[in-house]
Amino acid sequence: MSTSAVLAATEPAAVGNDPWWLILVKIVAIFAILVLLVLFTIVGERKVIGYMQVRPGPNRVGPWGLLQSLADGIKLAFKEDIVPAAADKAVFILAPIISAIVAIVAFAVIPLGPNVSVFGHVTALQLTDLPVGVLYILACSSLGVYGIVLAGWASGSTYPLLGGMRSAAQMISYEIAMGLSIVPVLLTAGSLSTSEIIGAQENTWFVFTLLPSFVVYAISAVGETNRAPFDLPEAESELVGGFHTEYSSLKFAMFFLGEYINMVTVSALCATLFLGGWRAPFGIGTIWPGANENWWPILWFLLKVVAALFVFIWLRGTLPRLRYDQFMHFGWKVLVPVSLVWLLLVAAMRTISREYDLSTRNVLIGLAVVLLVVVALSLLVPERAKKEVDARDPNPQSDFPVPPMDLVVPPSPRLKPQVPAKVGADEQPPTEEKED
């Protein structure tokens, strides 16, 4: 092992004491990684969904169509920038800027790798390591809703306003479940620092010991990023385009950029909290001791992020959009109660394991399996009961009012009654001509 590798592996990282040029390099590198991931995620999404639908997808710009997203971005920059006459112009312009900026700055506390040596300076592959890094990421994701709500309100149009209101209710509902799913991770790791959470997963990833938290986080992340099947704020079949209906040119591109950077951020946070962060997967670190040293961990981290992004794409190409009442019911009556029960179980088991010197990992794995089985049964029982009722009733009625099949719709009261034309005294009524 080289001298630089030894220094990087043994000396602690001087986070916050880096020289100004190294901080600038980290900022540019993070921004470049985010933009490149967004460009290739858009192309990958169109390619994967194209293969699912038995069509080629983009294949004209660049090799295998890989430069299609770059061409689309350049095209958006030169399109006409339209501001509606009824819009609040200052807020209308500020909203996409808020959405893009808060999505980018959230990545500042995500560790991309261990300590490395850069031109003689030992530094962490992380812009900064806050003691409350997880809270910082949650705060940034919470601020993202302001851009969407302000965009819907400032557009001065009905459909964007409805999309903004939907987004506010959606993000508030699923942020609660996401926050509750992260608390067991913080209890198990004993810290809010992202780097220390990765250090706590050196032997076992939290996806195995805290499986219910991982499932709830994954579902909440899809709802938090407004992605299908939870893309209700921008439902094309209902709201034209949702909150960004009135946007064009670079403003629309910034909303697009913010959405995909949010996907990258929640995927990176998922890898950090549950998948070991930058550590090598599948026991590679035990076979190859250098897998978790130097610059190799960046590769493992990016592979985990790309795998999570593929799940986003897979869901969009597979599942239909939920109805709004189903969406809110699932968030408040399924995810939140499950997260609360699991949080209480984790806290109780950690206390019991300390008192009686039990293996916390084995106990948590057993509890996770039991809880998932109970939740699956609770979701299947109502469906079975409904099928039994449908089998007994030949004409089942749904929970929503359904008009009878023989309903006769009365004419609209706005229609003027048709008065037959009067025949004048000197006019003869029309007579039918008889054919000879």
TrEMBL record:
The chain crosses the membrane at residues 20-43, 91-113, 133-153, 174-193, 205-223, 252-275, 295-315, 327-352, 364-382. This is NADH-quinone oxidoreductase subunit H. PROSITE patterns: COMPLEX1_ND1_1, COMPLEX1_ND1_2. Its main location: membrane. Pfam families: NADHdh (PF00146). NDH-1 is composed of 14 different subunits. Subunits NuoA, H, J, K, L, M, N constitute the membrane sector of the complex. HAMAP family: NDH1_NuoH. It comes from Cryptosporangium japonicum.
